[in-house]
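Re: [ENG-882] Designed sequences occasionally contain unexpected residues at chain ends

Forwarding the minimal case from QA. Structure tokens:
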């Protein structure tokens, strides 16, 4: 019996040791599994953090690029605005310089009542100025008022400016053909008709005696009278007798 109990104790001891060993092994295994689980969770957290950081970085870079593009656009618009302003100022300066140059080139027109006109063309007066009574027009075969001088002259003969002035208008009339109106100052105007091959244009300043064109073939209103220069003078828009101002009269 002693041997038996001795053996039985040994068996119990062995059993306890075995159970202890199994318990320790189990605990160790569970501990290992727990550590692995924590490591995997930590890795997942790290990956999520890296992904979040990467997203934040990409978003920041995108936002920075957007800001840079906006800044570049603002700079470009400011630069264009500055260029436009500079161009505008340059154009205004050129206009001012041009106006000053014109003012310098073109003296003030100041025709006075006692000033003298030179003859625009040398020739016989075919039809005299007549606003107080009618005169006979051969081509029209009728009597009518005449607000101008009709001066006989050959085709291609030069026509000169009777006074200095600025070309106010150039037009074509059925009666007087190509017709030039010049402002000579103080509401005086000179009108030259039956012209061709003009040497001037609208806006030009013309010196007294300067050629403005040449005598043309007569219109149908003056075919019987023959080629001529139609010469009229106005004051405040009303016709006046040019003979009163022409030299030698």
């Amino acid at each position: 019996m002693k041997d038996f109990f001795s053996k039985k104790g040994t068996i119990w001891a062995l059993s306890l040791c075995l159970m202890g060993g199994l318990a320790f092994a189990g605990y160790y295994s569970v501990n290992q599994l727990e550590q692995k689980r924590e490591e995997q969770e930590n890795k997942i957290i790290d990956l999520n953090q890296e992904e979040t950081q990467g997203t934040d970085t990409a978003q920041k870079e995108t936002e920075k690029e957007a800001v840079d593009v906006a800044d570049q656009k603002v700079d470009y618009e400011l630069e264009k605005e500055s260029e436009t302003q500079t161009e505008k100022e340059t154009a205004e300066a050129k206009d001012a310089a041009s106006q000053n140059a014109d003012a310098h080139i073109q003296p003030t027109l100041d025709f006075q009542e006692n000033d003298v006109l030179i003859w625009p063309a040398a020739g016989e007066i075919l039809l005299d100025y007549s606003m107080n009574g009618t005169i006979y027009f051969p081509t029209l075969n009728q009597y009518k008022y005449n607000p101008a001088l009709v001066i006989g002259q050959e085709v291609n003969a030069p026509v000169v400016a009777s006074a200095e002035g600025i070309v106010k208008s150039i037009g074509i009339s059925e009666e007087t053909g190509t017709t030039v109106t010049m402002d000579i100052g103080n509401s005086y105007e000179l009108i030259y008709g039956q012209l061709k091959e003009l040497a001037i244009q609208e806006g030009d300043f013309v010196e007294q005696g300067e050629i403005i064109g040449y005598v043309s073939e007569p219109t149908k209103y003056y075919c019987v009278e023959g080629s001529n220069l139609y010469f009229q003078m106005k004051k405040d828009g009303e016709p006046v007798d040019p003979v009163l101002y022409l030299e030698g009269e």
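QA comment: On inspection the terminal residues look reasonable. DSSP finds one helix and twelve strands in the chain. Proposing we downgrade this to a documentation issue.
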